[in-house]
Amino acid sequence: MPVVSLKEIVDRAFAEKYGVPAINIVNDLTLEAVLAGAVEANSPLIVQTSVKTVKAIGVDVLFTMWESMTRGIEVPVTLHLDHCPDRQVISECLARGWNSVLFDASTMPVEENQRQTVEVVAEARSYGAHVEGEIEAIQGVEDGIGVETATRRESIETAVDFIRTTGVDVFAPSIGNAHGVYSSTPDLDFQRVTDLVEATSTPIALHGGSGMTDDQFADLISRGCAKVNISTALKIEFMKSSLEFLKGAEEKDKWDPPSLFADVRQHIVDLTTGLTHTFGSSGKAW
């Protein structure tokens, strides 16, 4: 199965009412592990890269890793640039081969956000790529992008107009979700998802998924959240499993990096397969 477009993945999920994990990777190990987890679960997968990761690894090296690891892959996968307010980075990633981008102009006035998103959509289309849009900054700073406090939600009419005018392929609304770790189970506006879907028939991206309950995921996915973002959970799993292994290595005075990599990899594979079962994408590859 070759790499496919974001739209192909989310449109199928939207129609069949399941969610596809959109997982932010941080290096080569996590990239390979989430892909392996998707293959094991026979699930489509959206691999996401933050601007911070793109800049840390480099556009060329990161995309070469992606090409190498997805060559001949057996499930549909796509590469997405997450939360990017920098038009130059968007252009660089689209030109290099990213399949989709989230242009994050949520801190701008809606009119300016809309104007620039129209331009980004046109640019993406020239590469056969797709665009996710948002008009409300989702609370929480992650990888240096975001806001500390909740922002005012725009009206449904404003959001619908933005979706229709820009032609974005996926829309990320604010529904009480937040990036990072929740201090308690979030109080979510489920009806807002339903209202947006009924008005536009556009797949919804659910941000701030790390820490939501299985019931919340199921409810939101049934309403049209076809793309479910996971970033914090992977970071926690990656670092905690590394820490636990290194504590054991210190106790045994046995230092074997390949064993560390294999152990952490398995944790990330298990995280990925678990998400596919929770979101209903397991067995949905084509």
TrEMBL record:
SUPFAM superfamilies: Aldolase (SSF51569). Zn(2+) 2 binds at residues 104, 134. The lineage of its organism: Bacteria, Bacillati, Actinomycetota, Actinomycetes, Micrococcales. This is Class II fructose-bisphosphate aldolase. InterPro entries: Aldolase_TIM, Class_II_FBP_aldolase, FBA_II. The active site is at residue 82. Zn(2+) 1 binds at residues 83, 179, 207. Dihydroxyacetone phosphate binds at residues 180, 208-210, 229-232. Keywords: Metal-binding, Zinc. GO terms for biological process: carbohydrate metabolic process. Binds 2 Zn(2+) ions per subunit. One is catalytic and the other provides a structural contribution. It comes from Mycetocola manganoxydans. GO terms for molecular function: aldehyde-lyase activity; zinc ion binding. Its cofactor is Zn(2+).
